Amino acid sequence: MYHNPTSTENATKLSIVQDAWMLFRFENHEVIRLHLAPGESMENHINEWRIVFFVLRGGGSLDVEGTQYELREEQSIAVKAGKKRFWHNSGTKVLELLVMKTKERDERAV
Question: What number does CATH give the domain 12-102?
Fold first, then answer.
């Protein structure tokens, strides 16, 4: 539904280890809210979607095929589909990310 607000109270919990919620899902787009506790890392993985990560709170490092990107609050980065990547929260606060996935390609992504 397009007219109802979505939050973690009414969103779908994803079946991954991390605290992750599907806020919206369309044919070629998904919006996810992801939390990583201090010291927590995601599994290194490949995703067939182009992804834009926006750091809502905290900070952490994103590894994209061996290149490290340090991001903090209010920063974003786009990653091309098919790239191996993972997040690590090396801070003392929860890392909160807004994850916007699309099946469309964009050459500005890393």
Answer: 2.60.120.10
